[in-house]
Amino acid sequence: MTKLLSIEDLTVTVPGAARPLLDSVSLSVAEGEVVGLVGESGSGKSTTAKAALGLLPEGSTTTGTVRVDGSDVLSLRGEELRRHRSATVAMIHQDPRAALNPVRRIGDFLTERGATKDEALDLLAAVGLPDPARHLRQRPHELSGGMLQRVVIAGALAARPRLLLADEATSALDVTTQAEILTQLRKARESRGAGLLFITHDLHLAAAYCDRVHVMYAGRVVEHRAAKALFTAPAHPYTRGLLACSPTLGEPGPLDPIPGRPPSLSDAFEGCPFVDRCGEAEDACATWHPEPSPVRGGGTVTCRRTAPQTPAGLDLVPRNDNEGAGPK
């Protein structure tokens, strides 16, 4: 499949920070594929998505490459960058009010993105709004938050982008509406061959909806695997910690939160950024810079060692160094 998004070894630093915003991040999204990005707030998920739009922080220093549908995004300027943002890739934000002009009508928002009036009506109907003709005449303050999120998703689909970036796009919606929106996004992928980078805090939603998942921590990808493999046999202690503190309907019981807090941009570290919160860390983890190790069957885990608690069936490919990456 054609890669619509290809990020290779992307590192982004900002003045005054003790660590990079992003540290050697690599990921890709192919045609018709949903790739999940999960992790705590501040892990670098939104910054990774914004890199595909060329929206990295002003004054930042960047190394690595970001390509969308073959274009080198980091080299685009002026009109080329505006065309890229309007036609090739579309972002669906968590807060729809940030994307809508409060004094413009909903119809204006959609037609500005290339939709005719008839197409705008069809889009609003497709995302489940009850009275599309009336909603076209309304302004944002006349709609609820959930309805506005549907409008923003319709706006993202209006330009028929090759790549969709959904940044917590369904987190403000109820479960029924969320299912309807995800169905609409799935139809857009299937009918147009679009790819979707899906950022979410909902691990169970990522497991059900995504083809592959990247787990981020402190600006790094610590695990990348097929969704089913990652959630049934997580390899990284951080991934296991996220799953342990995530509530489930089928197996109610006490949650096991991860102790401490993620490092901020003012926190410097030499080795693994998760070492202070990891119950499986060894002394060497504090100084050893983690490198991705391949997992048999596809994907990587970025950890110095595999824990004794690794679920049965996980099969890591040993590295060719003295540290080893798999069980003996």
Provide an overview of this structure.
The chain folds into two domains: 211 residues, Rossmann fold (3-Layer(aba) Sandwich); 83 residues, no CATH class. Helices cover 28% and strands 20% of the residues. The protein is built from ten helices and twelve strands. The strands form two sheets. The protein has an eight-stranded mixed sheet with strand order 6-7-8-3-9-10-12-11, sandwiched between helices. The chain has a four-stranded antiparallel sheet with strand order 2-1-4-5, covered by helices on one side. Strand 7, helix 7 and strand 8 form a beta-alpha-beta unit. Helix 6 packs parallel to helix 7. The C terminus is likely disordered.
Protein traits:
alpha/beta, 328 residues, 8-stranded mixed beta sheet, 4-stranded antiparallel beta sheet, Rossmann fold
Proportion of helical residues? 25-40%
Question: How far do the termini sit from each other?
Answer: 36 Å
Low-confidence parts: 307-328
CATH superfamily of the largest domain: P-loop containing nucleotide triphosphate hydrolases
Largest sheet: 8 strands, mixed
The total count of helices amounts to: 10
Average residue pLDDT: 86
Secondary-structure content class: alpha/beta
Question: So what's the overall shape?
Answer: globular
Q: Widest sheet: strand order?
A: 6-7-8-3-9-10-12-11
Write down the CATH class of the largest domain. Alpha Beta
The percent range for strand residues is: 15-25%
The Rg value, from CA coordinates, equals 21 Å
CATH level-two architecture of the largest domain: 3-Layer(aba) Sandwich
Determine the CATH topology of the largest domain: Rossmann fold
The helix/strand series, from N terminus to C terminus, equals EEEHEEHEHHHHEHEHEEHHEE
For the secondary structure, the number of strands is 12
